Amino acid sequence: MITNRIGYLELVKRLVGCTGTVVLRPSSVVFDDLFCQIRTIGLGAIPTAVLIAATAGFVLALVLEVQLSQLGKVELIPTLLWVILTEQVVPIGVALVFTGRSVSAMTAELGAMQVSEEIKALFTMGIDIFPFLLVPRFLGFQVMLPIVTLVCVYASLLGGWILCAVALRMGAGEYIYYAFDEASLSSVIFALVKSVLFGFIISTISFYKGLNVRNGSREISEATTQAVVSSVIVVTLANAGVTLLQLV
After folding, report:
1. Which one of 158, 171, 202, 203 has the minimum C-beta count within 10 Å?
2. To 5 degrees, how large is the angle CA 147–CA 240–CA 10?
């Protein structure tokens, strides 16, 4: 039971422990609840994320076309799009979409449960909120961020192809050839690893802010704002740190 304010590290420790137990004992998972969280957290974010990814691919291709056409190297556009979009733009873009959509909702939901004493009622019934409330939501983030990231990688490449088809008269086959000629599976793996890390960061921040709400609706709005801002800052710094480690 969380009657007192909980520290971030303590929350992470208990959450990881409970998640490990659930993963090792799948029979303890309430799959209906898990699927509900997957739908709530991730499926609704797909249209927005895909639109942003496709637009980002189109705009980046436009910028590259303007620059590379001066050098006579426009055939490099698909290759550069693959590297830049897969490893950098799409993972952090999807994480920010989830931050604006799912982190705010999750923080507000947990904060409202604290204010209305629903969590206290669960404790009175002898229910541990970590496996009951937090683990399905945590797994929802961890499952859906990589999936949506993978979908958006190809949506962004589609956006880039639209520009190449219009401006360069580049056919789909030619575009695919150049995009994947020097493509590496490691780029996709790197993007998925980033998405898992970002999912961990934004979910734990939303849990921490939401569960520490105590004093009514005003604090719920403050906690929601803090969760979104904190998630954006930490995810941005984490992306820079991971990229630096990759390139060093």
Report:
1. 171
2. 75
**Residue 98: closest CA among 60, 134, 46:** 46
CA distance 72 to 69: 5
User: What percentage of the chain has pLDDT greater than the value 90?
Assistant: 50
HEC sequence for 157-185: HHHHHHHHHHHCCCCHHHHHHHHHHCCCH
CA 52 to CA 2: how far, in whole Å?
A: 38
Q: Looking at residue 1, what is its pLDDT?
A: 46
What is the count of structural domains for the chain? 1
CA distance 155 to 176: 13
63 exposed, middle or buried (CB, 10 Å; 0-12, 13-18, 19+)?
exposed
> Residue 144 pLDDT more than 60?
yes
* 2 falls within a domain: no
Asked if the structure places residue 84 within a domain, the reply is yes
Residues in the chain: 248
Model pTM?
Answer: 0.90
Domain around 41: 8-247
Contact indicator for 117, 213 with CB cutoff of 8 Å: no
Q: Both tokens of residue 89?
A: 């733009």
Q: C-alpha distances in angstroms, 180 versus 81, 83, 111, 138, 164?
A: 10, 10, 46, 34, 15
3-state SS string over 27-65? HHCCHHHHHHHHHHHCHHHHHHHHHHHHHHHHHHHHHHH
* Residue 30: both structure tokens together: 């309430």
